[in-house]
Request: fold
Amino acid sequence: TGQEAIGSMGTDTPISAMSDKPKLLYTYFKQNFAQVTNPPIDPIREELVMSLVSFIGPRPNILDHEGMAHAKRLEVRQPILTNGDLEKIRSIGHTEDRFDTKTLDFTYDISRGAEGMLEMLDRLCERAEAAVKGGYNIIVLSDRQIGPDRVAIPALLATAAVHYHLIREGLRTSVGLVVKSGEPREIHHFCLLAGYGAEAINPYLAFDTLIDMQRGEFSKELDEKDVVCNYIKAVGKGILKVMSKMGISTYQSYCGAQIFDAVGLSSALVGKYFCGTATTIEGIGLEEIAAETVARHKAAFGSDPVLANTLDIGGEYVLRMGGESHAWTRAAIASLRHAVRGNAKDSYREFSAMMNESASRMNTIRGLFTIKGAEEVGRKPIPIEEVEPAAEIVKRFSTGAMSFGSISREAHTTLAVAMNRIGGKSNTGEGGEESDRYQPLPDGSTNPERSAIKQIASGRFGVTTE
Reply:
């Protein structure tokens, strides 16, 4: 349908550094966003200011008036290239003498193992530098040579390594960077490649997969061109949505902006290949990334009979047997339902134990923490008589500003009633609250569903003169 896939907010899988599955490098990065209740830009209602136009090639010096008159750059309407689009770029030198394209392969012989990745990365950067100095002004990074005997460096790592090497050498503005890879398939993947320097991306394996699907279940509904166009359209919508969360309206501004934080990557790795990216929680380095890459390659081209005619189950978004572990299991949900519907304390304790055990199995960062008692740190416990009573402590409790539209009336009013009962405060969030909740009851008493804190910024939803 040309629409981005819909999923729930949040994830209950382990962060990649804690997972026992070999994870793609993209999953170690989290997109930053401007922390306001509305996105800084609404990419749908404010589409006039949004643009996916990308320019491939050398960036001219805008102060060089004479040079600017002769400079040329290749304009693409949006950054996701079909296989045909990429071939046009690769052969553009035959028809336009101001462009010259060099394709650099970032695969290497599997016999070199994980240990060979560092050397191959350095070699890739040297080849890119030599290409720019040799007069090439468009570089295509390609993993098309991947196969049983050749393993590919992760596309994000290869792109970022070349991007930052050329920046350090003062050559980045002299060349355009295009990525041809079978690895990217989700919106997050494309955004990361763009954020670390890719001016255009050709996800050839995604197209091959879609065309293969079209020949089967969709052959009567859509032709090959339709499924490719719909995919590109959906990816474009997704990129616009992600850009808008930081108030960025054009792909040109997003490209190379690295609006990401790393979670679980070592500062040495980030400092060399993702310079300037924040990584507050240390983790794996190049050695572990290489090992996981080789493990995925062996799974793809190995002799495992389970994977002979089918892909790994994955289980990233839905709990699957043998897939990625999830905090919310069927048993946990069932015990929570029993606890809520039957007001059963035993079922709640069972649910609580399951969730705490899940956290301690390292599904969450907080599962790595414990609270130390006073004795453990050599201090004397405070007498209970000196501790504030619970009735006083809860007066400082307040709920997060979750809008009515985001969590439903039932959840919204339950939070308000609970806070009113204990003496805390609930926040309506941006959606305000319905008028029947702040009107006094017939007997003149305060409505128990009335939120103590009213949020009226930005006034776009649910706020009335009343």
Summary: The chain has a mean pLDDT of 90. Residues 224-244 form the longest helix (21 residues).
